[in-house]
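Notes from hallway chat w/ T.B., transcribed later so I don't forget. T.B. wanted the structure written out for a chain they're using in a teaching module, and asked if we could keep both sequence and structure tokens in one place. Agreed to drop them here.
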Amino acid sequence: MTPTIPTSTDKPGAMTGIVLLLCAILIFTCQDAITKHLAQNYPVPFFLMIRYWAFTAFAVAYAQRSSGSVKISIRSKVPVLQVIRALILVIEMGIFAVALALLKLADAHAIFAIYPLLTTALAVPMLGEKVGWRRWIAIGVGFIGVLIVLRPGMSVFQPAAIIPIVGALGFAFYAILTRMVSHKDDFSTTFLYTALFGAIAVSFVGPFYMSDPTPADWGWIGVLCLTGVTGHYLLIKALEYAPASTLQPFNYLMIVSAAIVGFLAFGEIPDRYTILGAAVIAGSGLYVIWREHIRGSRASRKARAEIARPR
């Protein structure tokens, strides 16, 4: 999440944003459960294409409302980066859908939770950011958490567990590109490009995987589209009330909600290694977020001191 929507930092507003984010997390988790069911029975490009069509309709409506015209929102200062970013996301979504089909919901989310750490690491070569030794250690500890979940070399290791790592790496690149375009384009432009060019890309592939779902599964596909639109709407509203830095730590609750929904929907029970590894990954990520907050606060104080210094 890298919004460019004006945000409020007052406590009542921040609390509203947190509540909206928690609702979005629950909806996205239910969405992943539906994706898991569909991916186990139908080709991923098929229902991903339909989902993106619904996503695009929502993005066009949002652009029309926020900027007054889709023609205005489609004007980007960095169109190439916007298209690349959109393509990376649609590929990542396809990869993660496969991971959900092959792994327990909690396992897939526990491994995928490494993406904020990957984003921090990639910010060094791609954005020129400086990462101190404390955060590098936290990143290393986070990878140890992934190894705890994966348990390589043990008989219980699943090669499919590598898939969410690839997805997390793709999402980290997507997050970096989002930071880059957010300095050039407003939110409605970025949101529209994400949906529109993702839909165009998957529409080139989806027709080759057309399927004939049962009436019940057509209903689930409809619910999948609805959860996608509702989840994104709640996320946008959350970012209107609270800054991303306030909301980011709560994203790790997705692991908890995935474990609960995975148990209720599929009878999946995460083992002790998944719980321990997820705790290590989440703890590392929260530490990195805290260090980035400290670093940002110091930079802000230094900037204010420079402004106040007599000339």
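Follow-up for T.B.: The radius of gyration is 20 Å. Might be a good example for the class.
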